């Protein structure tokens, strides 16, 4: 199963990605996670990505496409993949299609999770993440049992700089202007499956499975 997961920042893509990876036994390919790892390691790619991400902007296409190309060529992607955070523009979508054609692969479905802007702002302004294992929490709705300590690995729980104040609003504006056109692009191809993200987590997942004919 080759899937693309879409939705604005804070829509719950990470949670649903974990369910889908377990359901289908495919790797979760998150460009955001790959860039953050590169930033932590201080690589050349990480340094390039850091300025864009902290400003709430998209990393340039040539950098993003290159890292995705390398990742899809790995052996664990042979049975399928879940792309999260890519493509984000029509240009990237066209580049992905060309890449998959060379690999003799096709996208089976594009899952688009919808959440209203007021709910997105509330979610993101309170979002916390474990620096070690990446588990997400919410300061009001789902905090860790012990302040700033991850329930799963005892790592440090913190708030990312791109989840705070004006940067949050800028990220949503970037999404609306640059990523939303993908909805039309994939709708015309008959691949788009739009799911309401304003439900209980399990209900969102069940709706995704139904949209995939399961």
Overview of this structure, please?
It is built from nine helices and eight strands. The chain is of the alpha/beta class. The protein has a domain at 2-115 and 177-211: Rossmann fold (3-Layer(aba) Sandwich), CATH 3.40.50. Strands 2-3-1-4-8 form a five-stranded parallel β-sheet, with helices on both faces. The two termini are 12 Å apart.
Question: What's a quick, concise take on this entry?
Answer:
With 214 residues, this protein is of the alpha/beta class.
Q: Secondary-structure element sequence?
A: EHEHHHEHEHEEEHHEH
Compute the gyration radius: what is it?
A: 17 Å
Average pLDDT:
88
First-last Cα distance = 12 Å
* CATH class value of the domain at 2-115 and 177-211: Alpha Beta
Give me the CATH fold name of the domain at 2-115 and 177-211. Rossmann fold
Q: Based on helices, strands and strand pairing, what is the structural class?
A: alpha/beta
Residues in β-strands, percent? 5-15%
Which assembly state applies to the chains in this document?
Answer: single chain
Largest sheet: 5 strands, parallel
Q: Residue ranges: pLDDT <50 for 5 or more in a row?
A: none
- What count of helical segments does DSSP give? 9
Record field, number of beta strands = 8
CATH second-level architecture of the domain at 2-115 and 177-211? 3-Layer(aba) Sandwich
Name the CATH superfamily assignment of the domain at 2-115 and 177-211: P-loop containing nucleotide triphosphate hydrolases
- How do the strands of the widest beta sheet line up side by side? 2-3-1-4-8
